[in-house]
Amino acid sequence: MPPQGAIVAVLALAGLASSFMFTLVVPIQTRLPDLLHANRDDTAWVVTATLLAAAVITPIAGRLGDMYGKRRIVLVLLATLVVGSVIAAVSTGLIWLIVGRALQGAVTGVIPLGISILRDVLHEDRVDPAIALISATLGVGGALGLPISALVTENADWHALFWTAAVLGAVVFVLVLLVVPVSVLRTAGRFDYVGALGLAVGLLGILLAISRGDAWGWGSAATLGCGVGGVAVLLVWGWYELRIPEPLLDLRVAARRPVLLTNIASVAMGFSLFSSNVSYPQLLELPAPTGFGLTLLAASLVIMPSGLVMMVLSPFSGRLASTVGPRRLLILGAIALIAAYGFSLLLASAVWHILIANLLIGVGIGFGYAAMPMLIMRSVPQSETGASNGLNALFRSLGTSSAAAVVGAVLASMSSVQDGRTVPTAAAFQVSFWLGLVAAVIALTVAAFIPLRPAAEHHPALPNGH
Known about the structure:
The protein is mainly α. The chain has 18 helices and 2 strands. The model is unreliable at 456-460 and 462-466 (pLDDT under 50).
């Protein structure tokens, strides 16, 4: 078997490539209507398609990994990333760009699968720090990828962004093939195709309502139809999953108190993280007096240190979780987020204020995202690790997508005309900081009720005795 450090490094690189896809088009997002000769509502699908694909594929990929081998599914997802990137790179119109971006979104499933692989192949003493590192890539890839995307956009044609993604995906594919061992732990049974279809349809309905509600109108027939229809489909799906012998997701495991509460905290933590991802860059780039007038590259460099903090903290997070337990680590993460937004509400009049707040965001997400998969895998059997981690990643996605919609709507609705341009007001940013703060308080409150020791499991995915 290859050295365990090499396995961790390759899976971390796969996680970075995955999270990079979410900030890949940020530098060209406002220019897409002109580049693609389409209206702004249509070009918004370039971002929305990635979000929807990620949310739908991640829990399904987790179950496929449990059944057919986690490395095999990781390779399939990376190959899908390469294909999607090439399609986007050669596209000249909106439709094919959206198709390519949807295929890119599928790669998000490599992070929960990578976490599950670590449990299968690493020595027990190395599992927690490695999980913390892979979990950190959810935030690190976006924070580090933003200045890279800005540099590529400023010095080359926008299609180069997608060629860069294709090369990155191909390199990671080869490294996974050469370094990561074949999965030997498999779950017997047949894949639940009906359950996968039901989950996909239900999630698409809800996420469409969340992500497009501001454009369609929150009370419009399209938004309500998608939202209510999605909830109805998921209710029927849950009823079905509880009555078949080999479900896509074992909802009885998902309903265990530590798993359920961790997933609820994940929604709040994801919302709190993405509130800053939406508000801080805009505040840095807007002209005075509302913002600071930085270029996209300069603003990206202010945001980037939060990703570095997550990366630096990851080995410390793993050791701390082994000492105090992942629940307390999650609580510490929520406290750091509360401190970040509290600081922003008091001080947001200089660039260094945003830098300090963003560093605290990095601490909060570094601790919080490291704790979540540890809490999950201490509470589920080995046969459920891929699916359970995929479900947890889905809940985080629900939080981030909700934040993108809600905070985006706040900044759009609370705006004024400045030099012929409609920009968010200072009050709009204050409201967005309050939203992030409230979400962090909810995460803290929920985390406080997670049991210190989960119920005994005959074959736990992680030992309970850490």
